[in-house]
Amino acid sequence: MVKKNACVFISGKGSNLKALIKSTRDCNFPVNIKLVICNNSDAYGLLYAKINSVPFVVINAQNNDFENIALQQIKKHKISIILLAGFMRIISKKFIKNFGKKIINIHPSLLPKFKGLNTFERIIQKKEKKTGCTVHFVDEKLDNGKIILKKSFYINNKDSIETLKKKTQALEYRAFSEAIVNIFRYN
Ligand code: GRF
């Protein structure tokens, strides 16, 4: 199997990056991670790139400059898919068009519910019965593009922001890899 080259964008903890790197060890997994791009030099997640010898670039620039440098790196590494894994910036329409290939994101709620930040706080406030995570294609609107898959669980009355986060992230690690397998199944 010829694997596609993926680039993972991160900003923080990088636990999804860690899970994705683990998935790439399976010879049937359709992508290899050839590059990590990060907009925060203090991001803990950079450690996973370092210890797994995945090339990484920290780009501190803002707006257009960030995207221009990112695009140069992406071309250099012949990237076919971008995976947003806890990347805390909105990608512009121009970037999406210039890249011209698949960009996917993982979000800690059952989209279209609870787009944006502070999802767990809002889920608790709204007394939701069920929550989970969503993997979707990225368009120019926040947490908006076509949904690839969702995974869910029931919330119980003992759940807190912390337990919801823990349960959701455990689902995310499987959901992200499954979504990647799904989108490359027929091409
Ligand atoms: C994840 O919960 C993801 O859904 C959201 O940001 C978080 C990133 O976590 N977009 P990590 O950096 O992968 O640990």
Structure description:
With 187 residues, the chain is an alpha/beta fold. Helices cover 36% and strands 24% of the residues. It is built from 6 helices and 7 strands. The protein has helices at residues 15-24, 46-51, 63-76, 93-99, 119-125, 161-184, and strands at residues 4-10, 31-38, 56-58, 81-84, 102-107, 130-137, 147-154. It has a 7-stranded mixed sheet with strand order 3-2-1-4-5-6-7, with helices on both faces. Helix 1 runs parallel beside helix 6 (161-184). The longest helix is centred in the C-terminal third of the chain and has 24 residues, at 161-184. The mean pLDDT is 96. The structure holds 5-O-phosphono-beta-D-ribofuranosylamine. 5-O-phosphono-beta-D-ribofuranosylamine is lined by residues 10, 12-16, 45, 85-86, 106-108, 133, 169, 172.
Quick rundown:
With 187 residues, the chain is of the alpha/beta class.
- Total strands: the figure is 7
Mean pLDDT: 96
Estimated share of beta-strand residues: 15-25%
Q: Looking at the structure, what is the overall shape?
A: globular
Throw out a few tags for this protein:
7 strands, 187 residues, 6 helices, alpha/beta, 7-stranded mixed beta sheet
Topology:
Layout: E1 4-10, H1 15-24, E2 31-38, H2 46-51, E3 56-58, H3 63-76, E4 81-84, H4 93-99, E5 102-107, H5 119-125, E6 130-137, E7 147-154, H6 161-184
Parallel strand pairs: 1-2, 1-4, 2-3, 4-5
Antiparallel strand pairs: 5-6, 6-7
Helix pairs in contact: 1-6
The structure holds 5-O-phosphono-beta-D-ribofuranosylamine (GRF).
